Amino acid sequence: MTSRTRLTPEDITGCWAIIPTPAKPGASDWRAADTVDLDESARIVEAMIAAGVDGILSLGTLGECAGLTLEEKRAFIATIVQTARGRVPIFAGTTTLNTRDTIAQTRMARDLGADGTMVGPSMWNKPDANMAAQFYRDLAEAVPEMPICIYANSFVFKFDFPPPFWAQVAEIPQVITAKTASAATYLRDQKASKGKIRLMPMDAEFYAAARLDPGTAVAFWSSSASCGPAPAIALRELVAQAKQTGDWSAALALTDKMSAAVLPTIAYGDWELFQIHNTALEKLRFDAAGWMKAGPIRPPFQLVPDRIKEFGRIAGESWAALQTEYEPMARLAAGQRRTRSGAA
Q: Is position 3 within any domain?
């Protein structure tokens, strides 16, 4: 493990892409071993960085953290960290069913050079706010060098992440950011956490959060970036411009297009169906978009009805069209950033 400066909330800005864990052919069979396509993993990290993303999150739900062996996780984390070479922060997910395993995996990610972890609380029993907060205290005590992104997914973790929780974890220095879902609770949770945690809504909710509080809403996550990062990069630029000019029309127009493209991914609002096929819907749309090869779905979530396959196809093709539309803007923004960085 090399010594490095721990990231702070101020380091969390811009577009953070969430990537899957690409799978080799045959990965849907439980007998398969060594299922991670490491070449594709390296390729997409390199492509994300070239496109201009500000950070990368991994090994969450669509990263199939629950379907990978420990050795597969180790190989994947090592590959993406080595590929990034410090150019953007890499947060490796270390969620497990219990505190001790999460600590062990977080130490592994730290030793492999990850810049932080994205982790949700234990989900076997439904926690209350005190239990969930203590989980993060224990993790921070055990691995004090590791910045933490709270994986605030109420569906997965059977926990609604209420204000008393945010008030407690805000006092943990290692907790620097949180992957949240909606702008609806943005101001509430921002107030509860006393502004000490950088809250990241999803890309389609970033516009709304930025309108509510332009000063603090400066970062968002995008799983859709794995269908092609250009629309997410363009959103970052358009929101930044809107904050300067007061003209939010272009940012709103892109947000509306994003929302429409994502709608099939959430099973058109059928949340029960979405929860069953969340991983499949994401991987199917990534492959349909054609920007990367997500590969087969790992067990036990590989049984996918035709209707879900169609949702994935529609979502992927819809986002691919946005990728084509906004790629010139994103390429220009990436070039300008490289020029500024070189001048600095």
A: no
Q: 290: domain CATH number?
A: 3.20.20.70
Domain count, the chain: 1
User: Which residue segment(s) compose the domain that 281 sits in?
Assistant: 9-343
Amino acid making up residue 78: A
4 within a domain of the structure (yes/no): no
User: Considering only CA atoms, which of 229, 286, 232, 285 is closest in space to residue 49?
Assistant: 229
Residues in the chain, pLDDT under 70: 1-4, 343-344
Among candidates 86, 72, 133, 77, which has minimal Cα distance to 110?
77
CB contact set of 221 (below 8 Å; sequence gap of 6+): 16, 17, 18, 57, 179, 200, 201, 202, 203
CA-CA-CA-CA dihedral for 66, 49, 39, 303, to nearest 10: 40
Instruction: For residue 86, give the amino acid letter.
Output: G
Given the residues 179, 196, 243, 257, the one annotated as active site = 179
Query: Partners of 57 in the beta sheet?
Result: 18, 91
**Residue 274 exposed, middle or buried by CB count within 10 Å (0-12, 13-18, 19+):** middle
243 as an active site residue: the answer is no
153 belongs to a structural domain: yes
Condensed to tens digits (0 to 9), the pLDDT of residues 214-268 reads 999 999 999 999 999 999 999 999 999 999 999 999 999 999 999 999 999 999 9
Query: What CA–CA distance (Å, rounded) separates 298 from 30?
Result: 8
- How far is residue 224's CA from residue 319's CA, in Å, rounded to a whole number? 8
> Is 2 within the bounds of a domain?
no
